[in-house]
Design goal:
Shape: globular
Number of strands: 4
Number of helices: 21
Order of helices and strands: HHHHHHHHEEHHHHHHHHHHHEEHH
Mean pLDDT: 77
Distance between the termini: 61 Å
Structural class: mainly alpha
Largest sheet: 2 strands, antiparallel
Radius of gyration: 26 Å
Strand content: under 5%
Helix content: over 70%
Length: 599
């Protein structure tokens, strides 16, 4: 009997070793493929500038184009993550700067992508006139502007909601600012940051057909600034009515989103659960087949042990250095004085830049009349301040309707998904595909449905805006429901709360801070979506236009009317500041004072 057991254990050990070897081979093959893909991407970025851009509509070109778009998306995400950690930390710790930084963030997230794109493309081309890297950088930065805002809002809100007791404990332990950031603040914000990162990648794909297939009118001449990618592929397929290429692009985009979700986001979601602020583990934890698979990798186990030893050594040396360092009062004063000087210099530089920009804007605004006297022009074609104001009201009504409609269904569905790891595991790939899929690719189908239902485009374009904005609310609500401590859920069962009471006393109050972040970012996403939702070009015939600020910005950018473009963008920015003061700031205060779990 002992001999049989010994033989059985030997067989199991041999099978485990073979499985480990197979996983390591897969890992090395994946790393080799990643290196080859990066080499191809860098080759594209360093290529000479092309005067004539050719987009290959064969299906064989789709893998390469998909890789290019994916690389731009992850490059933009890396920049967004760095920006989020720096900007959100400064805003959370410096209350004086916060009064300027958060409204500025709200303005920037609401300005449509075409408000940035013309100037950015021209600036990058002037820096790199002979290489494609200028256009590549411009495209990455434009994707960055679609990704970064909701991540920063989420991270800032999470830092403001850290329990006072935890900060006091960190101060009692004598932790440095870097240690507090690494050991307390980032872990406390991790769950919300992960879910908003997924939404950021989805938001980056929304304007892919605009960012990769951009043309600009300069001095009356059209210039082609397209880049090879799945967005420009789809745009070219629509223009040439190549339905096979359109179907291929849809399939490639869907496959890419699913692979990114399963290979990248799902493991991160599982890993982020260790940062939940609770004392007892949840009964049903999320799982990832990728995480389970790579647990058998000997290479990863060796790397993990090596990193653990390095962290232990660095922690020990940091503790010794902290115990030995006692800065004098004069040194502390010199450091504080240096910080003040740097702050004043930066502030002065920003003021000078603001004054120069204001003077240039005023010179552009002089050419724009208060009222366009031309009688034969329609409202959508007029170029005056009164028309800009009326267009602002029209777009505001649509963005408000978009946010309200989106919240009505995402709030209950998001809570139910977040409360159940099983449903989260099942629906996360679905929501990732739906949220990440570039909505402009679906606009022709939605417009056909609007025609079938006899819905005017001025109202129906709300559905187009909803395709991009609603996911910001859903992902934030899911993050909020996921963060509810298991102790509170158990307490609701112990006290026999009815389902309605659980929703009104626990679930809705717990997710309210996340809901506010979702509403703010959804509103910004809706304003951004106006440029493609209010001006619909199907590739044949006249474009379908709904009167609003988004369609005005699109026409101004497309025709090179930069005075009208600047006036429309500035009007939107001023309005967003007023809305931030009147509504969003009060909701943030309410969320922090009454509905934060961490008070």
């Amino acid at each position: 009997m002992a001999l049989v057991l010994f033989h059985t254990s030997k067989v199991r050990q041999a099978l485990k070793q073979r499985a480990s070897l197979g996983v390591d081979v897969m890992l090395l093959a994946g790393i080799a493929g990643l290196v080859a893909a990066l080499a191809m991407v860098f080759g594209q970025a360093s290529a000479p500038m092309r005067q004539q851009v050719y987009i290959d509509l064969s299906l064989w070109a789709l893998p390469k184009y998909t890789l290019f778009s994916l690389a731009r998306g992850f490059a933009a995400y890396a920049i967004s993550l760095i920006f989020t950690l720096i900007y959100g930390t400064i805003a959370a710790h410096n209350h004086t700067a916060e009064k300027v930084m958060i409204p500025t963030l709200d303005i920037l997230q609401s300005i449509p992508v075409l408000g940035f794109l013309p100037g950015l493309v021209l600036a990058m081309i002037s820096l790199f006139p002979n290489r494609e890297i200028g256009l590549e950088l411009a495209c990455v930065i434009m994707i960055f502007t679609a990704q970064v805002w909701n991540m920063t809002f989420s991270f800032h809100g999470s830092l403001r909601s850290i329990p006072t007791a935890l900060r006091e404990a960190a101060a009692m332990q004598g932790l440095t600012g870097w240690q507090i950031f690494r050991l307390l603040e980032v872990p406390a914000a991790m769950i919300g940051l992960v879910w908003n990162s997924m939404m950021s990648m989805a938001g980056g794909w929304f304007f892919l057909t605009v960012n990769e297939a951009f043309t600009l009118t300069i001095n009356g001449q059209n210039h082609d600034f397209r880049l090879p990618g799945i967005g420009s592929y789809m745009s070219e397929a629509i223009d040439k009515h190549d339905h096979l290429a359109e179907i291929g692009a849809v399939f490639a985009m869907t496959l890419m989103i699913i692979l990114v979700d399963q290979l990248f986001w799902r493991p991160i979601v599982v890993w982020s659960q260790r940062f939940k602020l609770e004392d007892s583990a949840a009964a049903d934890e999320p799982h990832s087949w990728v995480v389970d698979l790579f647990k058998h990798s000997r290479i990863l186990r060796g790397i993990s042990r090596f990193i653990a030893r390095l962290r232990h050594r660095s922690a020990s040396s940091a503790a010794v250095a902290l115990a030995a360092s006692h800065p004098s009062e004069s040194k502390i004063r010199r450091i504080q004085l240096l910080k003040r000087i740097v702050n004043y210099v930066v502030l002065a530089g920003l003021c000078v830049m603001a004054v120069i920009g204001a003077i240039k804007l005023l010179n552009m605004f002089i050419h724009l009349p208060i009222h366009d006297p031309t009688p034969d022009r329609s409202w959508s074609e007029r170029e005056d301040w009164i028309t800009i104001f009326l267009a602002l009201l029209a777009s505001f009504a649509r963005t408000t309707a978009t946010v309200v409609i989106g919240a009505l269904w995402t709030l209950p569905i998001g809570i139910m998904i977040g409360l159940s790891p099983r449903w989260s595991h099942r629906l996360q790939p679905v929501t990732q595909v739906l949220a990440s899929f570039p909505a402009p690719m679906l606009f022709p189908l939605v417009y056909a449905l609007l025609l079938l239902l006899h819905i005017p485009f001025g109202i129906g374009c709300i559905a187009l805006m909803l395709l991009g904005a609603q996911w910001y609310i859903l992902f934030n609500v899911v993050a909020g429901a996921t963060s509810i401590p298991a102790e509170l859920k158990e307490a609701s069962h112990i006290y026999h709360l009815q389902p309605v009471q659980r929703w009104t006393k626990l679930y809705l109050p717990s997710v309210f801070p996340y809901l506010v972040t979702g509403l703010v970012t959804a509103a910004g996403g809706a304003w951004n979506a106006t440029i493609v939702a209010e001006y619909l070009n199907l590739g044949h015939g006249e474009p379908i236009v709904a009167f609003g600020l988004g369609s005005m910005i699109f026409r101004a950018s497309d025709s090179g009317k930069y005075s009208l473009l600047a006036a429309a963008v500035v009007t939107m920015s001023v309005f967003v500041v007023m809305l931030n003061r009147a509504l969003w700031k009060r909701l943030y205060r309410l969320a922090e004072s009454r509905y934060s779990l961490n008070v």
